[in-house]
Amino acid sequence: MTSRSSLLQAEAPSRPTGSPGRRQPHAGCEGCLTRSLAVCAALPPADTVELEAAAGELRVQAGATLAREGAVRRDVYTITRGMLRRVRLLPDGRRLVAGFLMAGDFIGFSGASHYRHTFEAITDCTLCVFALQDMQQLCRRHPELEAGMLRQACAELDATRSSLMTLARLTPVERLAGFLLDMAMRQQRLGASADRVDLPMTRNDIADHLGLTIETVSRSFTRLKQDGMIEFDAPRLITLLQPARLRALAGSPA
Amino acid sequence: MTSRSSLLQAEAPSRPTGSPGRRQPHAGCEGCLTRSLAVCAALPPADTVELEAAAGELRVQAGATLAREGAVRRDVYTITRGMLRRVRLLPDGRRLVAGFLMAGDFIGFSGASHYRHTFEAITDCTLCVFALQDMQQLCRRHPELEAGMLRQACAELDATRSSLMTLARLTPVERLAGFLLDMAMRQQRLGASADRVDLPMTRNDIADHLGLTIETVSRSFTRLKQDGMIEFDAPRLITLLQPARLRALAGSPA
DNA sequence: CGATCCGTTGACGACTATCAAGAAGTGTGG
DNA sequence: CCACACTTCTTGATAGTCGTCAACGGATCG
User: Fold this and answer.
1) Higher pLDDT, B4 or A117
2) Is A15 on the interface with B (CB under 8 A)?
3) Does residue A18 fall inside a structural domain?
4) Is B164 within 8 Å of A96 when comparing Cβ atoms?
5) What is the pLDDT of residue A21?
6) For the CA atoms of A216, A222, A224, A225, what is the dihedral angle to 10 degrees?
7) Which of A106, A130, A161 is the last residue of a domain?
8) How do beta strands A56-60 and A83-89 pair?
9) Which CATH number is B229's domain given?
10) 3-state class of A252 per DSSP?
């Protein structure tokens, strides 16, 4: 009985490509767990009424696709529960997982008219939906919101640029160490313990995220375990025994 | 006598680490060649007076460092002439060139209080300098400017995410093909011909940008030449003979 | 003219991808 | 409840690609 984190709920039997789910009226920002993390935080509490009016709630089953690469980009999203992957494919099937998205993350920082990635739910997810147009109008009326979006877009840019170093110059073990630290940090922000990492995604997802094969990912896990830096509570639930050594491996900035 | 492009002027005898140059009063936005490209374009012509008041002009010699990783981030820049590289180093000397910056590009989309990269001039450069504070105030007074910054930050995010695919999943030849197309496209926006690419940076810079070694970069160049896709006018001046085939190699999006 | 830097090419070896098999966990149906 | 299919993850053997080491040619500069 491996009790996975309550933040990232357990993966349901994955239907290959389920429907993205229905849009429902929004329940209200007040009780929202991610209120303080998300883009919405830029708006003073008094103005959340407007946000709520524009927002819809969307639930997506594990395994289902939220939005497909190439489709017209009509909506933007804030994730309130669960985890998704940002995927891009090459014609010959090579795959990149450009990132994992969790509660508080925003989908919609793009200048493109069409989605440039496919977004697939790894666990059951709940999201706040906004029509792109509505969000743009909200931004026009509330410069603080736009400023907040700019700040968060810059933060994401910083993070993405760090990934460049990972992919360009780090060894497999170093990449994995950095990945584990990154996931731990983000989950900690959501209230999890600092040294426990929950990995709802498959080894394949991790491989395609780190530019490796699943075998190399697996061997790198084994190496970190043998060296006493991590411990497996389950294949997808890991304890970081020596975060400092992991940080040293990953090149500190992580 | 290799007459390099007039857009990216020839590399001067590189002083190892010259001084970043002096800040001068600004010459005015009216005649600025990059006016239509840069962040500033978001501001209506009537308001450029304010921009000019806040801006300074800065010249940086080839080989000199504009800003150092870890230093306090006091200024932001728009490049009006020349080319710089965005560099990050690992403790053991491994290097990443996170990007090449040219006329119209903006340095300053970051949420960090300190520079996260070192910026080094590849050719002699001219830049518009703004104190970070001034720019933030300008944004507060002119929401259009902030909206423009957000748009451009998103565009840069899109571009950076594309680099992830390059580094994670493309072969050396594919990476180089994509790189050449990217440089050609950006130089075309500045008025150069579509099939001529000027590469002021060294093979080492290219290697550290593509996550390869200089030998592999060199061999990949040779391969593209042997296959008839490119032609060398000089080691750093290349003609794209078959852009379509290059695009196919790079995975089209480029 | 020698020194230095840059780029190319060749020989070799290491590391990671590939191929293959097996172990472990999960859900389904009898 | 158990057998079976299926997926995921791990481990081993092998091969290929790219990194490393080395040498050379060309350009630039003092």
Assistant:
1) A117
2) no
3) no
4) yes
5) 67
6) 170
7) A161
8) unpaired
9) 1.10.10.10
10) coil
Q: Give the nucleotide nearest to B236 (CA→C1').
A: C7
Single-letter amino acid code for the residue at B248: A
Which nucleotide is the nearest neighbour of B175, by CA and C1'?
Answer: D18
Does residue B10 fall inside a structural domain? no
Contacts of B196 (CB under 8 A, 6+ apart): B5, B184, B187, B237, B238, B239, B240
Whether B107 maps to a domain, the answer reads yes
Residue-level pLDDT at A11: 41
Q: What is the pLDDT of residues A17-66, one digit of tens each?
A: 445 666 777 777 877 878 887 888 888 888 888 888 888 999 999 999 99
How far is B112 from A151, CA to CA, in rounded Å?
A: 10
Q: Measure B113 CA to nearest chain A CA, in Å.
A: 11
Residue B156 sits in the same domain as residue B187 = no
Of B129, B146, B164, which closes a domain? B164
Q: Within 13 Å of residue B96, how many CA atoms lie on the same side as its CB?
A: 22
Contact list in A for residue B111 (CB cut-off 8 A) is 151-152, 154-155, 158
Whether residue B9 is contained in a domain is answered as no
Question: How far is A11 from A4, CA to CA, in rounded Å?
Answer: 9
CA separation, residue A214 to residues A184, B20, B21, B50 (Å): 21, 46, 49, 55
Same domain, A152 and A121: yes
Pair of tokens at residue A179 = 């990945």
Best to test chain B binding among A142, A165, A212 (most B CBs inside 10 Å): A165
The Cα B103–Cα B190 span in angstroms is 8
Whether residue B112 lies within 8 A of chain A, CB to CB, comes out as yes
Domain count, chain A: 2
Rounded Cα–Cα distance for residues B104 and B78 (Å): 6
pLDDT confidence of B51, banded at 50, 70, 90?
confident
